[in-house]
Amino acid sequence: MTIKSSTSTSLPTPSDDPCSCFYLRRAARLVTRQYLETMKGTGLKSSQFSILAMVSHHGSLTITDLADKMGLERTSLSRALRPMEKDGLLSISEERERRRRFVELTKQGREDFKKALPLWNKAQQQFKKQLGAQELKTLKSLLKRTAELISD
């Protein structure tokens, strides 16, 4: 069987400018994979470590505040929090009057965060060594600026 290509229904050609989203997502996947490899003994995903770090730094936060600080939708964050609560890393309590839910670290969450922190620092240093201190500083500045521009 021969398959003929049709030139009359050809797809549009991408521009010469590479897709920014593709490169950002690709880099994010590769960096995440590297962090996970370094932190594999902790049992935490990088997203879980980030949540523990944010709650550890800020203390008790509403789900809305935590989602805002992490740049996530509330529903996405809630899905990420459920297994962490089930595993005893976080507690989620409700304020009855205003129907707000607060996230706090449990004792287990604090212990797991403290154990994972040195490995996360190792992953940070490894990435800094690979990229170079100045390049990393530039990258962080560009990513922060990009997030600020897009979120406005």
UniProtKB/TrEMBL annotation:
Chain ranges of the HTH marR-type domain: 17-148
Matches recorded under Gene3D superfamilies: Winged helix-like DNA-binding domain superfamily/Winged helix DNA-binding domain (1.10.10.10)
GO molecular function: DNA-binding transcription factor activity
Regions annotated as coiled coil: none
A Pfam short name: MarR
PROSITE patterns: HTH_MARR_2
GO biological process: response to stress
InterPro entries: HTH_MarR-typ, MarR/SlyA-like, WH-like_DNA-bd_sf, WH_DNA-bd_sf
Domain of life: Bacteria
Protein's name according to its UniProt entry: MarR family transcriptional regulator
Species for this entry: SAR86 cluster bacterium
